[in-house]
Amino acid sequence: MMQGLYTITENRPLTTRVSRLRLRGNTSAATAPGQFVDVLLPGCFLRRPFSVCDAQGVDLTLLYERVGKGTELLRELPSGSELDVLTGLGNGFDLSASGDAPLLIGGGTGVSPLYALAKALVAAGKKPSVILGFANRADVLCEEEFRALGLPVTVCTADGSYGVKGYVTEAMGGSYSYFYACGPRSMLRAVCERSTTSGQLSFDAHMGCGFGACRGCGMPTIAGNKRVCKDGPVFRKEEILWDA
Questions:
Q1: Complete domains list, the chain, with CATH
Q2: How far apart are CA 138 and CA 152, in angstroms?
Q3: 216 neighbors 195 (Cβ within 8 angstroms)
Q4: What's the pLDDT tens digit per position in 79-88?
Q5: Residues of the chain with pLDDT under 70
Q6: Across-strand partners of 48?
Q7: Ordered DSSP codes for 18-50
């Protein structure tokens, strides 16, 4: 974990609710796709956690959804503003289990950490495919960014306004060696039930500290209650106790 000041170089809306935030600073602690950062926002007591979408050189890219006071304040900050950020949080995805043709499944802003994962898998010589799920066409994120990596991308929309009509599970019929998923809890459970292989899931949770001290983000697992911020946010499919 590392704490530092980061300068906003871009804070741009991508949809009516989701924005892209680019920060400049020390990214050396962001060592694995799937990790997250904890941002201290002006006027807020608790930091806000955000998955790392990309970390390259001194540039850190995050996607965030406007859901409350903190993200409302964040959306108004101009380029040049400084933010206090904790980086290098969480365990990240394990690439060693992926096989040659992993499947990446993202729902909503859950597509964010999968972009960094896709880059890492491609760099390792893997051939991932991608399924992205959204409510409607206006909510679609990162499709072109994944395609720019040379990956096959299937987009699903719940209302059928773009791509495959329905949820991401509608597009999981192909062959894949492993899966990685990030999105709403209901989506993650459905993906596990539909999947034909093992996989890893990245969970979102309300966090107090972001590094395991407050124990406020418990996750029921076969090994007892674990902390999403410290023991996760990535867990193996077989670990989760969905009904606990």
A1: 2-89 (2.40.30.10), 95-204 (3.40.50.80)
A2: 21
A3: no
A4: 999 999 999 9
A5: none
A6: 39
A7: EEEEEEES--TT--STT-EEEEE-TT-SS-EEE
